[in-house]
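Notes from the 1:1 (GR / supervisor)

We went over the backlog. Supervisor wanted to see one worked example end to end before approving the batch request, so GR pasted a single chain during the call. The sequence is below; no edits were made to it. Supervisor asked that the structure be written out right there so they could see what the output format looks like.
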Amino acid sequence: MRTLATLCMLGLAFPASAQLKDPTSLEFQIPSAKAKLPFAKDQPIVFVTAQNMGEWNKLPQFWNPASEEVIDPTTGLKITRQIVKVKLPLGLTEAPKTPLENPMTVARWELGRRLYFDHALSSDGTISCASCHDPKRGFTDQSPVSIGILGGKGGMSAPTVMNSSFAFRQFWDGRAASLEEQAQGPPTNPIEMFAEKEGDAWHLLVLRIRKKEDYTPKFLEAFGTEPTRDAIAMAIAAYERTVFNGNSIHDRAELAMKFRVIEEEGTKFEIQPKDYAKVLKEAFAKKDVTALSALKLQDEKKLDEVAEQISQGRILFFGKARCNLCHVGQNFSDSQFHNIGVGVKDGKLTGGFLGRFGSQPIGHKDPTLVGATKTPGLRGLVSTAPYLHDGSEKTLEAVIDFYDRGGNAHEFLSPKMRDLQAEQAYLRSKQTGETYNGPAVKLFGADQTPIIPMALKLTPTEKAALVMFLRALEGEVDDLVKDVATPLPGKK
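Structure output shown during the call:
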């Protein structure tokens, strides 16, 4: 690695006086090709999913050092360079999208992992990203609201970082368009990370990072610049883009089902209780504590009973319980925004929370999104309690009860939470004078809009089965991502 002194001699590092005279250099810098790792030594990270089953099966672990033959664009010569193939866990069938301006490389990822756990991101050195998004707590803090700098309390439950790379937008209200943009928010928040009385939060942060002796040479190699706001955000995003949760019991059962149907020469590709039973037996044989503890399954004699319950829960999830209206795809989220009645008291939103509507720019305000929040993914639920954006529900059972009653009625309740047919019947009765015999109606707003929450009418047995299916979505996160001290495979 080049030393900072050597880089200064080459004219590739910016003197501290220039940093202070030109604040722009703290925000971003034009990369220096001479400072950056040359193409032949800059290791790219390549994502491999189970969609490419042949290659996926050959990869023994999450992080797989490999090599590739490519044309060096700087010389036009064919070379062999080192790469890393990241094996996405089972169930994640699509790799996350990566901005062209922030390609995934080992150098950027290593910086991002270190920064994520570095308390220097906060102005008094007490808070890191991991403080509220702790890998040991499902990349959350398992609290209704987070505790930030100087004991300040936030207004939201910290969302998990797991699989956040698949989200269309970041934060509960979607105010950030990317992980890179999201990473820039907390350091400027006086409740989360910034406690200085004066000065630009990010400029002070960048100067703190630059004072750490080994950061600057690594930033120059990874980005061709000193530490800047731009580069720090990119590095953190590169790391967060690899925080995957998958390989749940449900994912394994789905794969087992496919092999079973092919072997039986069948045509009905649908998971059966015996598929869940098969992978549960394998989990017992391998002493898979994560999967079995998520299901509270300690006695192998109850294995078939639990398999049947998970299967019934899956049927309910995609049927009577209507969960898949919003929870779809590989991460069980549509990445859209819905107001399900969280935080409503006496028919009104509390605290002036406007949700997605509030974060939309002027000229693009959508009144149907007042109080709406992003649909969270459902992987890793066991480790991320409490639930909902305000952390108001402590258990999965309580969440199911919330949805079973149709959320909390109010003027902006999402149509997906409402009994629209009953509402139409009520409106028709008003026009025709006929008697309305449907569910109870509440009128809201200046227009006296009728709102009827959709009661699912789940039985206690159905609720228990649905919870068991959600527990079967509990997956794994690789140790390399969870612990900054874990060495990279093949790293010299």
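Supervisor's comment: The longest strand covers residues 78-87.
Batch request approved.
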